[in-house]
Specification:
The protein is of the alpha+beta class and 600 residues long. It has four domains: 16-70 and 319-412, no CATH class; 73-226, PAS domain (Beta-Lactamase, 2-Layer Sandwich); 234-318, PAS domain (Beta-Lactamase); 423-573, GAF domain (Beta-Lactamase, 2-Layer Sandwich), CATH 3.30.450.40. Helices cover 51% and strands 20% of the residues.
Length: 600
Amino acid sequence: MNRIMPKFRNPITSSIRNKLMLTILLVAALAVIIAGGYMAWVTVTSLRNKTEQEEVVKLNVYARNISSDLVGLEQDVKFLSHSQSLSEYLSARDAGLDDNLTAGALAAAEQDFFAFAQARGVYDQIRFLSADGQEIIRINTNANGISTIVPPEKLQNKADRYYFADTITLPPGEVFVSPLDLNIEQGKIEVLPDGSNKPVIRYGAPVVHQGQVVGVIVTNVLAKNFLDLLRPGGSIILADQDGYYLYHPDEAKRWGRDLNTGITLFSDYSPEVGQAMLSKEAGAFVDGGEFFAHYPVPLPGHPEITWYMGEVLPLKLVFAPVYRFIYGAIAVTVLTLLIAAGAATFISRVITTPVVKLKDAALQATAGDLTVQVRIESKDEIGRLAAAFNTMIAQQRESIASLEKYNRQIETVVDVSHRLTAILDLSDLMRQVVNLIKETFGYYHVHIYLLEGETLLTAEGYGQAGAEMKRQGHNIPLNAPRSLVARAARKGQIITVENVRDDPDWLPNPLLPDTHSEMAVPVLLGQEIVGVLDVQSEKAGGLSAADEDVLRPLADQVAIAVRNARVFAQSQAALYEAQDLQRLYTEEAWEKFSAIRTTT
């Protein structure tokens, strides 16, 4: 008897429902994997690029800080080489005048150099060396900023030092800049009071008198002042063109050339990494589990002399947000697949359409369109995924906007600060302060007060209103109870009023009828109040914490610039007074000399 065997029924092919479910599952899985993977790749790439840009921007800020400390040093050495008092000393020496007259001229030149050292405050040494390398004038400034004139018996001959030989042979008008190295005194590397080696960079210029090179001016800049700016960076390094460390978090690795340790970038890393770190272009790269960022620092006025700033960090530390995102993306993908498997039979259409839309949105985001939004049509997992995507895109958009705004603010602050430090006339400084801040940030009005005794006097204001306030001698007593400006000065804190019309302490000014919000920023030098920077907006709530973040460092720079202008004015007055006294002394000496010659 023949038995008919039942045919095997494939549970997948025998049911269209199963086919549909399997198809939906496969399509959903494929869509989630492709879209999620592609979106993850785009996001990881974006996060990595953002991290690299942040590190390069960080190095850029430190590089700008170093460059700002070196601006003007070349002009200083040229100024000293053409000093009137030095020229008068050389004339007296060459004319064979009485020893007392020559000594007096030398003393006047020493006093001029001394006043210059005190006014500038950045030089470790200022020297005039004769054509045979002998120090004639030398001003030393210690770590506390106190300058002294070195007596004749302690002056040295530096004819064997490279910076003298290189400077004395320069054509008139040119400036020598030395490598950044350790200072040597009496044949030994000089040590600072804190026990560290003393790094300096030297500027030199030939001194020409009556058409002949009769010596050189050499200024020593204490490099520790700007190298210490890198200390807050933690892992930042600075190397010369041969890879020797000028600054390293590990002090034992610094000054390999001077200390003959042989420690360089090339001894710590591969030749490829060393060459990349000494690139003329800023950038970042990954090698051997470490992240490297680099930024060239050309010397102002001497681009042929370039230092190289860099930062080396563990890869896991730098890209921790990237790894967290990858793990999160994997978890979200797995969870989505599990949910899709349970719900595919019932919500295939609901799942398919949002996934396609999500994929399209991811592609738009990949193409650079960060305004894309996914419409949330349900409250299930896909809806939450769409919401998460929208949130992620919004966060990316905000992050990029914040980074761009931050970069613009940093660049603006550095640029304005750099421009202010070059102004030494107090009136011009005040005018530039209000004009630069008003025109750069677009405030309704800007003016600045300086503290004189117990009164805040209007030093400058923008436009006709500011000029009228200054003409009227507008001032505010420091103890004024209803003044935002006086309160900011007393407390040493920024005072911001979002709507001045609702503030009982606000004092209206008929010259500024459209003021609706105001911010008073104290100008502090340490704990000393110098004045108050006052900015106003025509909008209620128009001044925010972001304005505080920009104006606070600007006010600090204004305080330093005011101090520099006042010190410069004092030094100029002292210089003119010394020159007048010297001129009178010289005239009296010549009269006595002429009288003696007449009687004989």
